[in-house]
Design goal:
Elements (H helix, E strand, L loop, with lengths): L2 H14 L14 E3 L6 H9 L4 E4 L17 E6 L2 H10 L6 E4 L13 E7 L6 H7 E12 L5 H8 L10 H10 L3 E14 L2 H10 L13 H14 L2 E13 L2
Parallel strand pairs: 2-3, 2-5, 3-4, 5-6
Antiparallel strand pairs: 1-7, 6-8, 7-8
Helix pairs in contact: 1-7
């Protein structure tokens, strides 16, 4: 297979895989990312076993929530992206969760003080005032979030040099939580090695994790993808670094 044909084949492969939900299993053997040391799914499972009402915001396809072994009597998940809503409803039947389609802007469609626990893995935005409103007194918000400049090396491989990131800093999340009247009780950070073995994995990732290169399409960035493909062929896997932080905030 010629290099041109191989490139086109890999591009087509990465562009043709469905990206609904938040399951990255297609990348097995093609890309990898270190896991944060705190074990978010285990933390969520442990908390869920101790509460009576919980909410998962931006559930994606419900993949993390579906693994909770002891769900609370009332379990609700929200999702704004329509293709994910039906995926989440199918996935979360096993834990008895109700999936609610929501708008991409506040408010949350729940009464004040509805939940003992609110969780969210990689939220698009964190509506701190709304989280504080729907939490019961003594309730907690536990979230694993995307940190500032995550996989910046990949973004710059496609877009060129970028200015320093101005958003998604952990300190900003702490300030916003406190401004909403919450008490921050835990904050942890991690930098995670992320490896892409071929350009198909890159295309799939950019289609799925849309904030890495906003407005990404294969046609728009074909030249940049070709240069990155050639670099992987010559130098080996492309390495970037994901940024994550864990924050827990409690309503007094």
């Amino acid at each position: 297979m010629s290099t041109d044909r191989e490139f086109e084949h890999l591009i087509a492969e990465g562009a043709g895989v469905p990206v609904e939900g938040w399951d990255f299993s297609w990348l097995a053997g093609r890309a990898s990312e270190e896991r944060p040391p705190w074990g978010y799914a285990r933390l969520v499972a442990a908390r869920m076993a101790t509460v009576s009402a919980a909410l998962d915001i931006d559930t994606g396809g419900g993949e993390v929530l579906a693994e909770v072994p002891e769900p609370p009597p009332l379990l609700v998940a929200t999702e704004a992206w329509p293709p994910n809503v039906e995926v989440a409803r199918r996935t979360l039947r096993r834990v008895g969760a109700t999936v609610v389609r929501v708008a991409e802007t506040p408010p949350l469609p729940f009464r004040d003080g509805s939940f003992d626990l609110v969780v969210s893995r990689h939220p698009v935005d964190t509506w701190w005032d709304e989280i504080a409103r729907v939490l019961r007194s003594g309730g907690s918000y536990l979230s694993q979030q995307i940190g500032a400049g995550t996989v910046r090396e990949l973004s710059e491989a496609i877009l060129g040099p970028l200015p320093p990131p101005t958003s998604r800093h952990p300190e900003q999340a702490v300030a916003a939580a406190r401004a909403a009247g919450l008490e921050v009780v835990d904050l942890r950070r991690a930098t995670l090695r992320t490896v892409f073995q071929d350009i198909a994995a890159v295309v799939y990732f950019l289609r799925k994790v849309i904030w890495t290169v906003p407005g990404f399409t294969v046609d728009r960035y074909r030249d940049q993808l070709r240069r990155l493909h050639d670099r992987i062929q010559a130098e080996g896997p492309f390495v970037a670094h994901a940024q994550r932080f864990l924050i827990e905030a409690r309503r007094p």
